[in-house]
From TrEMBL:
This is PA14 domain-containing protein. Gene3D superfamilies: Toxin - Anthrax Protective Antigen,domain 1. It holds the Pfam family PA14. PROSITE patterns: PA14. It comes from Hymenobacter aerilatus. Residues 17-169 form the PA14 domain. InterPro entries: PA14/GLEYA, PA14_dom, Secre_tail.
Length: 357
């Protein structure tokens, strides 16, 4: 059972928004929130992702009326905090709700996007908003009058696919004037690899940054991680290379482990195009040791063979390609002219080479 005016404790990183819940429906009248007595005050929520349904996903207890078990009705809410735009530009916001909801930024006198009334089911309204890079005050008003409920806030923007607004760009502003954490997150396709670069302005209880990859922007897998800076007010820069990036459009996000809280960056996409395989040998002639230059140097284990002029295989060994373009080879074979065969995952390369002076 909830106590009227109950305040919930702070989270580790203050990511997300602060929710305050009220008994009763506000009927699109924002003055309701100044008059009504709050039942739950400043509860931290990670993101506004309460999918449409008849379940108690809002977890408001006796602030709501339950006309059927697990189906809260007749309550209203405000969600407040800061949104950090990594890049300045035009953003599109998608507000899905059942019933009324609206999103307001900074000192605007009109909502950016709004769903009015209660005589409708779940529906989504869209609107665009120009945001400069940096912090913006965000306020979301919501009310549930009867039947099913739901509230989802999504966006897309510069270099960003449509997605639920992640908690990594939302700040509770519990203590006023928050310092940004993630200030830059960029992807760059180089060859058949993807370079990920991100910067932070401050970090709080930051254990690590986990890089996650997806083929559809929905289901992600971990591909690497870097240690965080703990608690720091200094800027930090991070770089990681995905050496096994699949061809086509691939999606990436960061998962910061911050105390006991997981904080997610926006999802970004990059297109990886196939690069023709090139293999060169040097020096020629040589003293018995030579180098293979393989580009793109995708990590794999190939097989290297040397065949002498009489058609006899003189050398065979696995050749690890670790992501560096140049691989040293010392086959310890007699001086002579050889046919080199490099058997890779999807291709066999044949070259002629003179071993020894």
């Amino acid at each position: 059972m909830f106590t009227w005016g109950q305040t919930t404790p702070a989270t580790d990183c203050e990511a997300g928004l602060l929710a305050t819940y009220y008994r009763g429906y506000f009927y699109d009248d924002l003055s309701f929130f100044a008059r009504a007595k709050p039942g739950i005050v400043n509860r931290a929520v990670n993101e506004l992702n309460f999918p449409f349904g008849q379940t108690d996903m809002f977890n408001v207890g006796d602030v709501a009326v339950y006309n059927s078990p697990g189906n809260p009705d007749e309550f209203s809410a405000t969600y407040t905090g800061k949104l950090y735009a990594l890049t300045g530009g035009t953003y599109t916001f998608y507000l899905g709700s059942d019933d009324a909801a609206s999103v307001w930024f900074d000192q605007d006198t009109q909502p950016t996007v709004v769903n009015v009334g209660d005589a409708h089911g779940y529906r989504e309204a869209t609107a665009t908003k120009k945001l400069s890079a940096g912090f913006h005050t965000i306020r979301v008003f919501y009310g549930e009058h009867g039947g099913s409920q739901g509230l989802v806030l999504r966006y897309d923007g510069p270099d960003m696919i449509q997605q639920v607004v992640p908690n990594g760009v939302l700040y509770t502003n519990r203590n006023g004037n928050p310092s940004p954490v993630l200030t830059e997150f960029e992807l760059n396709s180089v060859g058949q690899q993807v370079q990920l670069h991100w910067t932070t302005a401050t970090e709080h209880h930051s254990k690590s940054f986990v890089v996650e990859r997806s083929s559809d922007g929905v289901t992600f897998e971990e591909i690497g991680s870097l240690a965080g800076a703990g608690t720091s007010t200094q800027a930090h820069t991070y770089d990681l290379i995905d050496q096994r990036a699949p061809l086509g459009t691939t999606y990436y996000r960061l998962r910061q482990l911050c105390g006991t809280q997981a904080v997610y960056s926006p999802i970004k996409a990059v297109e990886v195009k196939e690069v023709p395989l090139q293999v060169s040998l040097y020096p020629v002639p040589n003293n018995g040791t030579f180098y293979l230059r393989v580009q793109p140097a995708l990590p794999q284990t190939a097989t290297l063979e040397l065949w002498d002029a009489s058609g006899v295989r003189a050398y065979s060994a696995p050749l690890p390609i670790t992501g560096q373009p140049d691989v040293q080879v010392s086959p310890n074979v007699p001086i002579g002219l050889y046919t080199l065969r490099l058997q890779m995952a999807n291709k066999t390369i044949v070259r002629r080479i003179v071993i020894g002076h």
